[in-house]
Amino acid sequence: MTDRVVLRFLAAPGDTxxxxxxxxxxxxxxxxxxxxxxxxxxxxxGYCVTAYVGNVRFARSVSPGELVxxxxxxxxxxxxxxxxxxxxxxxxxxxxxxxxxxxxxxxxVAVDPAGHPTSVPHWEPHSLVELDLxxxxxxxxxxxxxxxxxxxxxxxxxEGTAPRSVLRFLATPADTNFGGKVHGGTLMRWIDEAxxxxxxxxxxxxxxxxxxxxxxxxxxxxxxxxxEVDARLIYTSKRAMHVSITASSAPLERPxxxxxNARCMAIYVVPExxxxxxxxxxxxxxxxxxxxxxHAQELIALRAKMPPLPASVxxx
Length: 316
Fold this sequence. Notes:
By secondary structure, this protein is of the alpha+beta class.
């Protein structure tokens, strides 16, 4: 039984989805989920599902041809859940040192063959640095629950007038794990694609994600389900676009019976010369528009309170 894992990938042109030629945030989120899953399965010795991925901040971009390392390690366990610290580093094959791309926390839950949560072994700190982790994680959990509550309470109806992009996918066997459910990483890639489409169409320019957070997984997606990913611009600052993204699914034969699978908030910018350039201002029109714009600013304030994770534990 091991509490950590390292996965390596070679970024390829097929991992990019935009004119910028950079690896998409969605592909990085997909790799993050794979590492978290491998770590959780190694610890629990059983099937696991993604429950939450939060506070993903991209410090740098990744280009095709770079070697990417994804580090995942257990930092706390509950009765059925595992908090996993994930960090991504990348470098050109000719370079000696890796450079940090991002780090975040994921929550994985162990489930039995019937899909019910099942207990996991208790994790104990092994070093002086790890001794401080339970208290640090507890602070983040409290803030995370507050963020989740605000995200779930936010209204999203046809009263809103904000720019939207809606993408649809059909869940196929190639998208699923051996449990017959769509990978959390695949869903996060679809979420990023819809968010990118919304941001890029508003800015009339290429856009890149610099943040993704509050990704709450509420229900599984099965083979044959129709998946609808709805991205809505809810706030713009001088150089950033805040996009709320909701993924829902329904059986192919009953497409009107949509069930929410996940919700996420992502921030996109338009890069030029290594800097974020100004983006067009979006002005709320309806009452719902104004409520959601205030909601985005509340989330910004809450995330600013998130305690930083020590760099000493971000890489194995």
